[in-house]
């Protein structure tokens, strides 16, 4: 699928709004509620062009999950999101992953711009 985004967040409302915003920006969106669900989707053959990933998931730390995705698909960019400040992220823990950070709550234009910026790199 072209322009497929997998949205991973344990809050149903965040998943719904993020998917709505991304669809309105021209992407196809599939939601996942946790890291296990994301990895299962990858196992089932859903290879996204972008992963939108909450840093604080109940089953795994988002940066750890980003690294797991990167090991399987090194070209997929990851848009990390959290209600917490980005100061908790370091370049060292994300290595050479193509990533960007988005503070929650986010506006539609901020999510769309961040997603397309990552896809364009």
Overall pLDDT score? 91
Low-confidence stretches: none
What count of structural domains?
1
Secondary structural class: alpha/beta
The backbone outline, from C-alpha atoms, is globular
Series of H and E elements? EHEHEHEHEH
Radius of gyration: 13 Å
* CATH 4th-level superfamily: Response regulator
- Fraction of residues in helix: 40-55%
Main sheet, how many strands, which sense, barrel? 5 strands, parallel
Structural features, described:
- The chain is globular and about 30 Å long.
- It contains five helices and five strands, in the order βαβαβαβαβα.
- The longest helix is centred in the first third of the chain and has 13 residues.
- It has one domain: 3-Layer(aba) Sandwich (Rossmann fold), CATH 3.40.50.
- Strands 2-1-3-4-5 form a five-stranded parallel beta sheet, sandwiched between helices.
- With 121 residues, it is α/β, with parallel strands linked by helices.
- The model has no long low-confidence stretch (mean pLDDT 91).
In short:
The chain has 121 residues and is of the alpha/beta class. It has helices at 12-24, 35-43, 62-72, 91-94, 108-120, and strands spanning 4-8, 28-32, 50-54, 78-82, 99-103. It contains five helices and five strands, in the order βαβαβαβαβα.
């Amino acid at each position: 699928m072209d322009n497929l985004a997998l949205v991973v967040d344990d809050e149903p409302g965040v998943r719904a709004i993020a998917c709505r915003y991304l669809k309105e920006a021209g992407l196809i969106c599939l939601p996942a509620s946790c890291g296990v669900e994301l990895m299962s989707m990858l196992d089932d053959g859903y290879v996204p062009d972008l992963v939108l990933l909450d840093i604080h998931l109940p089953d795994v730390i988002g940066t750890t999950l980003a690294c797991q995705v990167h090991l399987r698909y090194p070209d997929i960019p990851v848009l990390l999101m959290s209600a917490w400040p980005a100061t908790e992220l370091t370049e060292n823990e994300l290595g050479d992953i193509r990533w960007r950070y988005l503070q929650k709550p986010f506006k539609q234009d901020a999510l769309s711009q961040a997603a397309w910026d990552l896809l364009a790199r």
